Amino acid sequence: MSDEGVDESKRQFLTSALTVVGAIGSGYLAVPLLAQMQPSVKAMAAGAPVEVDLSKMEAGQLLRVAWRGKPVWILNRTPAALETLKTMDKVLSDPQSNDSIQPASSKNSYRSIKPEIFVAIGLCTHLGCSPTFRPELAPHDLGADWKGGFFCPCHGSRFDLAGRVYSGVPAPTNLEIPPHRYINDNLLIIGDEGNGGAA
C-alpha cells in the first residue's frame, strides 16, 4: 500500500481529536468512580464537632444533641444541685472519676469545665441504654436518698448529677464525658477540645 495521496495534516487532526475525546471519556468514567470512594456527607457530618448555643438555657434544664450518632446531654445545674454533689461520695463507686472516660479538663469533682454546665454522653456504661433524667428529690420509686440524677430503666443503674455511678449497680463506670470546649460563655463545641477545653 502506498502512502501517496495521504494528507498528513488530516491524519494528525484525527489522531489529536481521538486523543482528546478519549481523555474526556476517561474523565467521565473516573469522576464517579473516585466520588463513590469519598465518604458521604452524612458520614463526614457524623464525626464533625457540634456547636450548641447555651444562651437560652434555664437553670435545671437538660438539652439533648447528637454527636457521632450518640445522644449528648447538656445540663445546666442549679446551685442547689452543685451543693448535693459534695454529699454523694459515700454512695458512689468512683467519686473521683479515676476509672472513667473524660477529658483532663473535666477531671474534677463536677466533671465539667464550668461547674454549672455538665456535658455527658447519654448512654449507660453497662449495656448502652439511655438513662432518664430524674431531677426530682426522693421520688417514691427511687427512694428517700435520691438527690437527682440519671436512672437507667434497663437494669437499674443510677448516676448522680455529675454522671458518677452509684455503688452496687450494673454500670461499671461513670458516664462518659465527650471532648468539648467553650468558644465563649454561650457557645459550646462538642467533639473538639481545642486548647484543652478552657473557655
Q: What can you tell me about this protein's structure?
A:
With 199 residues, the protein is of the alpha+beta class. The protein folds into 2 domains: 1-38; 45-190, Rieske [2Fe-2S] iron-sulphur domain (Rieske Iron-sulfur Protein), CATH 2.102.10. It is 22% helix and 20% strand. It is built from 3 helices and 9 strands, in the order H-H-E-E-E-H-E-E-E-E-E-E. The chain is elongated.
Oligomeric organization of the protein chains: single chain
Integer average pLDDT: 86
Give the SSE string.
HHEEEHEEEEEE
General shape: elongated
Which residue ranges are poorly predicted, with pLDDT under 50 across at least 5 consecutive positions?
A: none
Main β-sheet, in a few words?
3 strands, antiparallel
User: How far apart are the termini?
Assistant: 84 Å
C-alpha Rg (nearest Å): 29 Å
Count of distinct structural domains: 2
Strand content: 15-25%
CATH architecture of the largest domain: 3-layer Sandwich
Overall number of strands = 9
The CATH topology of the largest domain is given as Rieske Iron-sulfur Protein
Structural class: alpha+beta
CATH superfamily of the largest domain: Rieske [2Fe-2S] iron-sulphur domain
The helix content is 10-25%
Fold topology:
Layout: H1 8-37, H2 41-46, E1 50-53, E2 62-67, E3 70-76, H3 79-85, E4 117-121, E5 132-134, E6 149-151, E7 158-159, E8 180-184, E9 187-190
Antiparallel strand pairs: 1-9, 2-3, 3-4, 5-6, 6-7, 8-9
TL;DR?
The relative contact order is 0.16.
Task: Fill in the keyword field for this structure.
9 strands, three-stranded antiparallel β-sheet, 20% strand, 2 domains, alpha+beta, 3 helices, 199 residues, Rieske Iron-sulfur Protein
